[in-house]
User: Fold this.
Amino acid sequence: MLRTALIGFPLSGKTTLFQLMTSHREAPRGGHGKLDVSVGVARVPDARLDHLTEMYQPRKRVPATVEFADIAAATRTAAQALLDVAPFRDADALVHVVRAFVDPAVARGTGSTTPARDAQAMEDELILADLAVAERRVERIERDLKKAKTAELEKERDVITRCREALEHATPIRALPMHEEDRKRLRGFQFLSAKPLLLVVNIDEADLAALSVPGRAADEAGLGAFLARGATREAAVCAKIELEIAQLDPADAAPFLADLGLREAGIDRVIRAAYDLLGYISFFTVGEDECRAWSIPHNTIAQVAAGEIHTDIARGFIRAEVVSYDALVGRGSMQACKEHGEVRLEGKEYVVQDGDVITFRFAT
Ligand SMILES: Nc1nc2c(ncn2[C@@H]2O[C@H](COP(=O)(O)OP(=O)(O)OP(=O)(O)O)[C@@H](O)[C@H]2O)c(=O)[nH]1
Ligand SMILES: [Mg+2]
Assistant:
């Protein structure tokens, strides 16, 4: 499951977005570190899963999910503190909610009045928090190297030194070009600025028209230059209004969405941006019992995808029977696909494609 954490200045709309996105939520609680954290799960909207569910009429329809974590604290949360909070430290991506709504009834926290400045100020905080970690780490490695030199430790020192130098020049680690092995070396340090970053621009009610044009809200908020860096994306919402609409019956909500010129709900826009950012794709498992969507990173091999379902399936992997969503829907049934030779037998190393419908064969 893809895990994200909401960051942002006070009163920027983090909790409103959290409520908009998530359908299952835990009450805020401590135990994740020093701060109270709410964790919630969003169901990934997917028209393909809807269609498969119509075809199979299964007992259960299970969408893919994305986890969101929200800090329940109205106080200013320095990025440094986030390193102590497990759902933030371990997140696959950070979602920065940037306030672009005006509303004089909602006080401004410590944020500024320009989204671009807030985006940069938060970035600077992530960088500072990481710099402290990188400096400590380099010192420690230098000490260890004096005791015993290993090639791996030297490589680690080199990559962290590179990170430290970038951070000193106010460059986030995610913007550094880096070999995959070096990225792996860094993973254990959970640097905040290494995580892909999604900016969610929380726009003003007066500006709702911007939502119907992708990228427009971010442009208007002056975030273009910020976004030009690698591993960042944006999505726009008007969290307050969209939450109000989402709480209506779908039938009642439709005319509101149409009125606003919105083809998609906020949840779709934010989740699609998160998938794009991380290069995630979906595959499906189907049957009379259950139709289910799973999300995996782009370029995942079949055996690893199987492990997403259950470690036993990965361990006992024999083969994957794969048909594309388009073929399955086009032919109308798995049987028809088999008759036309469209169900392929693939091995462990097969790279799963977006929209693959897979039956795993495995030994227990
Ligand atoms: N006008 C307007 N108000 C909004 C919007 N989004 C959020 N708000 C309001 O702003 C206030 C703060 O929103 P929250 O979602 O609690 O903000 P937060 O970032 O979680 O705040 P803290 O957790 O206290 O830092 C609430 O009263 C929301 O109703 C918006 O798009 N427009
Ligand atoms: Mg909040």
Q: What stands out?
A: Residues 300-362 form a domain with the Ubiquitin-like (UB roll) fold (CATH 3.10.20.30). The chain has 16 helices and 13 strands.
